[in-house]
Design a protein that fits this description.
The strands form two sheets. A seven-stranded mixed sheet has the order 7-6-8-9-10-12-13. The protein has a six-stranded parallel sheet with strand order 2-1-3-4-5-11, with helices on both faces. The radius of gyration is 31 Å and the shape is elongated. Helix 9 links the parallel strand 6 (about 180-185) and strand 7. Helix 8 (about 155-175) runs parallel beside helix 9 (about 190-205) and helix 10 (about 220-235) crosses helix 11 (about 245-260). The chain has helices at about 1-25, 30-35, 40-45, 60-75, 90-100, 120-130, 145, 155-175, 190-205, 220-235, 245-260, 275-280, 295-310, 335-340; strands spanning about 50-55, 80-85, 110, 135, 150-155, 180-185, 210-215, 240-245, 265-270, 285-290, 320, 325, 330. It contains 14 helices and 13 strands. It has two domains: about 50-155 and about 295-310, 3-Layer(aba) Sandwich (Rossmann fold), CATH 3.40.50; about 155-290 and about 325-340, Response regulator (Rossmann fold, 3-Layer(aba) Sandwich), CATH 3.40.50.2300.
């Protein structure tokens, strides 16, 4: 009988010890609790993070890719979360992208598109929801869009062209070129694009050159610009410069000079696309490209977002200067060209 009682007591003690150990395990603090922190989900971690909606139309173009990269880099530096929606190549896609962003609980909206007129209703929604809007790369917004903007910036077409004219004028002086110039503008017929040419001509005149505009041919496609430039080379043996108001336009003109063996005809472009810079570095007759600074434009915009979200004020219409990529020298800034 004593043996049975002893056995029962032993089993009871073992059970009690096991239960105690189990309780110790349940109540044992985690490493995070020991260090004064607790595990949280990603959603909880990002709950207080500033969320910026970004829509850029046309990520197939190097200019917009650099704009995107610059924005993401600056946003990461300031600790912002970015939700991106590609605006595509048409107004309908742009509107859908922006509406999706508005519906995603953003703190600010940044947009770069050629279809601002299609976004008026979306911009009005932003105002109702107290979402500030920041426009990248356009100083010529229509009034209906501009009224909703907190901040907008861009590069003035005429100012950018003027810098190009100053650089090319100095280059021609340095090589002892004649002062009477015959130029063909390679461009889509568009007011903003033509301002890039008029500024270029003004810069050349500032350097003491006389300019004769022979004709305007081509458009924004390389193929049509090639065809138009070939016609000009056939009709005129005295062309000094093909001036393209976009990278694709200038590259079409360059193709025409190569096909015709007319390397004496210089080519100047606009946009600073990779292929343009490659031809310039290869010491061809492609002598310069006027470059906007999309990464710089994005940084200026993110800085404006930071100022506004921290309670400050910003002024719209900020001009981001262009620069020139020239033969034998690479990038030249506006300050260097203007002597500032």
């Amino acid at each position: 009988m004593k043996k049975i009682v002893s056995l029962i007591l032993l089993v009871t003690m073992l059970f009690t010890l096991t239960a105690c150990k189990s309780n110790d395990k349940v109540n044992e603090p985690s490493n995070n609790e020991t260090n004064g922190t607790t595990d949280v989900s990603n959603d909880e971690k990002n709950e207080d993070k500033i969320k910026i909606g970004l829509s850029i139309a046309g990520l197939t173009m190097p200019y917009y890719v650099r704009m995107y990269d610059g924005f993401m880099e600056a946003a990461e530096e300031f600790g912002y979360e970015v939700t991106f929606a590609d605006g595509g190549a048409d107004a309908e896609s742009t509107v859908k992208a922006v509406e999706d962003l508005i519906n995603s609980d953003i703190d600010a909206l940044a947009v770069s598109t050629n279809y601002s007129e299609a976004l008026i209703d979306s911009f009005a929604r932003c105002k109702e929801l107290n979402i500030p809007i920041f426009y990248i790369g356009n100083l010529n917004l229509i009034p209906e869009a501009k009224q909703y903007m907190t901040f907008w910036e861009g590069t003035r077409s005429d100012s950018a062209g003027y810098l190009g004219g100053l650089w090319v004028g100095q280059y021609l002086q340095d090589i002892g070129y004649k002062t009477d110039l015959n130029i063909v503008e390679v461009s889509l017929i568009h007011e903003t694009l033509h301002q890039r040419y008029t500024g270029f001509e003004e810069g050349l005149k500032e350097k003491g050159f006389t300019v004769n505009l022979i004709n305007t041919v081509g458009d924004l496609t390389r193929e049509n610009s090639l065809a138009g430039s070939e016609d000009m080379l056939t009709a005129h043996d005295n062309i000094d410069i093909f001036y393209g108001t976009a990278g694709t336009s200038a590259l079409g003109a360059f193709d025409a000079t190569q096909n015709a063996g007319r390397n004496e005809v210089m080519v100047v472009g606009f946009d600073g696309e990779d292929e343009e810079l490659q031809h310039i570095d290869e010491d061809t007759n492609y002598i310069a490209s006027i470059c906007q600074d999309p990464a710089g434009e994005s940084r200026v915009t993110v800085e404006a977002i930071k100022t506004v979200l921290e309670g400050g004020t910003v002024e719209g219409g900020h001009e981001t200067p262009a620069k020139v990529y020239g033969k034998g020298v690479g990038y030249v800034t506006s300050d260097e060209l203007l002597g500032n």
